[in-house]
Amino acid sequence: MAEPLSAEAAATLRALLAGSDPVRSALLAQIPHTRVVGRCGCGCVTVDLEVDRTAVAPAPAHPNPAVDAGYYAPHSAGVMVFAKGGYLSLLEIYSVSDEPITAWPDPCFIER
Do 35 and 5 contact (CB within 8 A), yes or no? Predict the structure, then answer.
């Protein structure tokens, strides 16, 4: 079930991975080579990711999540980026309410 990464998910990744440290830079370079290979069962927009490992190098070793951030008002959500073996593996959004987040909030609301 591999499908292209949505424009909204890609924009979220770019916003989260902005910066000059080597891990973020390497993960940022993977975005054009990333596809969605799964989704969360709760109805939220969380996506499992797979990177074409022949097209781009892995990120240096780092802890997970690689990035953990929140959204400021009016959103009550957080977002995390995970990698496995140096490659993007999960873009997870979570709600602080009982309702799943069903659309990616505008990345301008990300607070790191």
Answer: yes
Sequence letter at residue 100: P
The count of other CB atoms within 10 Å of the CB of residue 31 is 18
Q: What is the dihedral of CA 108, 73, 90, 101, to 10 degrees?
A: -120
Distance between CA 110 and CA 22 in Å, rounded?
Answer: 21
Interatomic CA distance for residues 106 and 24, integer angstroms? 20
Q: What is the mean pLDDT of each run of 10 residues along the chain (112 residues)?
A: 94 96 97 97 95 98 95 85 98 90 93 82
Distance between CA 63 and CA 60 in Å, rounded?
Answer: 10
Backbone angles phi, psi at 15, to 5 degrees: -65, -40
Of 33, 35, 30, the residue nearest 16 (C-alpha):
30
Q: Encoding tokens for residue 77? A: 């959500």
Q: How big, in percent rounded to 5, are the helix, strand and coil portions of the chain?
A: 20, 35, 45
